[in-house]
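pasting for the record
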Amino acid sequence: VVLKESGGGLVQSGGSLRLSCLASGFAVGNNFMSWYRQAPGKEREMVASISSASTIVVAEPVKGRFSISRDNTKNMIQLQMNDLNFEDTAVYFCHTESWKWGQLNEYWGPGTQVTVSS
């Protein structure tokens, strides 16, 4: 299982970015997929998730501004981020998990930096 994020960068407050997470070694349509972020000095927090049944959850701080989607043909998920503000500055990680032999295995991408300038 390999996850690789892309699309991060520097953006002005109020701007938009779209992050992509390309997966290999499994089908994203069969797994619970999430985006997390970690700002300096803060704990990693879940931003949005999409289940294999396409149930979507978006965290309150970003609700109405961020959306998660999945492209099974490209085996990737994306995070559309609109109306970005300084508090959205963080490293964004793609995450998935799977159960095997009764054990939960978690997989993370290396992350992509998003910096929002005021």
